Amino acid sequence: MSWLDEVKWDDKGLVTAIAQDAAGGRVLMVAWMNRESLQLTADTGIAHYFSRSRQKLWKKGEESGHLQTVKELRLDCDGDVIVMQIEQIGGIACHTGRESCFYRKFDNGGWVTVDAVLKDPQQIYQA
């Protein structure tokens, strides 16, 4: 039995993947992985994901340069969530130009943006 067989893949062959900053512990993003992206992540030490909207593999940072170096992979007790301790190259994980995709918090009955844009996304994703 392969280590990949211990992962509980959903009906689309995907598993939830959480990228957490290895130094500070902040959750930077949540994405999806399939068998191939998880294998590539383990083999290369660079986070690879599966894009549900584009239906293809992607290496985090392939366009932006904001790669994620994986320090540790963990599988939860149910086998259906991967947590990766990562070093976020460039300090930006979110496509909005912020450190984390979790830049809004619930406050007083609504969502409030609490993290600044570190770099304009148009500068990051130049065509």
Can you describe what's shown?
With 127 residues, the protein is mainly beta. The protein has one domain (3-124): Roll (Ubiquitin-like (UB roll)). It has helices spanning 35-44, 121-124; strands spanning 15-21, 27-33, 48-51, 56-59, 68-75, 81-88, 104-107, 110-113. The strands form three sheets. The protein has a four-stranded mixed beta sheet, with helices on one face. The chain is globular and about 45 Å long.
Keywords:
PRA-CH, mainly beta, four-stranded mixed sheet, Phosphoribosyl-AMP cyclohydrolase, PRib_AMP_CycHydrolase_dom, two-stranded antiparallel sheet, 8 strands, phosphoribosyl-ATP diphosphatase activity, globular, magnesium, Ubiquitin-like (UB roll), 127 residues
The proportion of residues in beta strands is 35-45%
N-C termini distance? 44 Å
Low-pLDDT runs of 5+ residues are: none
Strand order of the largest sheet: 2-1-6-5
Question: Can you tell me the CATH superfamily?
Answer: Phosphoribosyl-AMP cyclohydrolase
Molecular shape? globular
Task: Specify the structural class.
Answer: mainly beta
Order of helices and strands: EEHEEEEEEH
Largest sheet: 4 strands, mixed
